């Protein structure tokens, strides 16, 4: 409310003298009190005065009863019902249902897929409660290329396929702004966790090219050193090696495990005790 004092029409009493209107009374309430003014002609004019700030979100309508009382004997009175409707002010910011939305998305999901619907509530009324959604003002441009949000519904979609091997997690803010004056806004945090798919084939890298091996080389002599990696994660990134050879059993595989700082599986190719030149001068 923009004013705190409400002037009311005075009650009418056809009697005169001591039998005419003497005073007013207002029902007990938390927000309004009664004030009576005396005009020069003796007319008593009632006013209700706001003594405590109103909150439309707590109570939008107040019902008051004003009673006019005369001075006669017996005393007579009349009442008037007063309805006070509280107009909305934009004094509430939108609030999201969740402070943090954690979302799981499988990599390579089709662009345009809805991955989450966020929702904010504004306790105000009318345009003051109408909300528009957007990505936070500090959102990185790279994330804006990957995600978009419907300004009316709050539907969050992916604009491009996500690649787990490029990034497994994305974090950003979503903003909800109302249409009141002044504009008020609220924020929530979004964390998108990308789930890995088995979309990468193992890669074999020869780090030590095979060299001629003497036929009397002892068993276990290294023939070649290779590294194997798979960019997928978890079981999708585990690699099993097998060797296809013209003479099975002559060349064997020995792995020395993954390096702690790299995704490579170090693998040694070495000769077996049955290795002889007379069997073949070359194996593939």
Automatic annotation (TrEMBL):
Q: Report the subcellular localization.
A: Cell membrane
Keyword annotations from UniProtKB, A to Z: Calcium, Cell adhesion, Cell membrane, Glycoprotein, Membrane, Repeat, Signal, Transmembrane, Transmembrane helix
Where does the record locate the signal sequence feature?
none
PROSITE patterns assigned: CADHERIN_1 (PS00232), CADHERIN_2 (PS50268)
Q: How would you describe this protein's topology in the membrane?
A: Single-pass type I membrane protein
Domain of life, source organism:
Eukaryota
What Gene3D superfamilies does UniProt report for this protein, alphabetically?
Cadherins
Q: Name one GO biological process term.
A: homophilic cell adhesion via plasma membrane adhesion molecules
Record's SMART domains? CA
Assigned GO CC terms: plasma membrane
One GO molecular-function annotation for this sequence?
Answer: calcium ion binding
Q: Specify the Cadherin domain's residue ranges.
A: 11-96, 97-204
Q: What is the name attached to this protein's record?
A: Cadherin domain-containing protein
Instruction: Kindly list the organism's lineage.
Output: Eukaryota, Metazoa, Chordata, Craniata, Vertebrata
């Amino acid at each position: 409310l923009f004013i705190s004092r409400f002037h009311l029409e005075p009650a009418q009493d056809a009697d005169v003298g001591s039998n005419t209107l003497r005073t007013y009374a207002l029902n007990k309430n938390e927000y309004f009190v009664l004030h009576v003014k005396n005009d020069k002609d003796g007319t008593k004019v009632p006013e209700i005065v706001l003594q405590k700030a109103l909150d439309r979100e707590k109570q939008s309508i107040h019902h008051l009863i004003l009673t006019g009382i005369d001075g006669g004997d017996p005393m007579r009175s009349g009442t008037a019902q007063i309805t006070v409707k509280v107009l909305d002010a934009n004094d509430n910011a939108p609030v999201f249902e969740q402070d943090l939305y954690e979302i799981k998305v499988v990599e390579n999901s089709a662009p345009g897929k809805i991955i989450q619907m966020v929702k904010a509530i504004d306790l105000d009324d009318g345009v003051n409660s109408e909300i528009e959604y957007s990505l936070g003002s500090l959102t990185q441009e790279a994330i804006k290329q990957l995600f978009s949000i419907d300004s009316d519904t709050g539907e969050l979609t992916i604009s491009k396929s996500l690649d787990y091997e490029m990034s497994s997690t994305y974090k950003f803010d979503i903003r909800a702004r109302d249409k009141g004056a002044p504009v008020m806004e609220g924020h929530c945090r979004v964390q998108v966790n990308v789930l890995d798919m088995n979309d990468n084939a193992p890669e074999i890298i020869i780090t030590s090219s095979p060299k001629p091996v003497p036929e009397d080389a002892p068993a276990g002599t290294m023939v070649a050193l290779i590294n194997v990696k798979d960019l997928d994660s978890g079981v999708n990134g585990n690699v099993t090696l097998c060797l296809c050879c013209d003479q099975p059993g002559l060349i064997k595989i020995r792995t020395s495990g993954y390096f702690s700082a790299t995704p490579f599986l170090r693998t040694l190719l070495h000769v077996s005790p049955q290795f002889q030149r007379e069997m073949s001068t070359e194996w593939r």
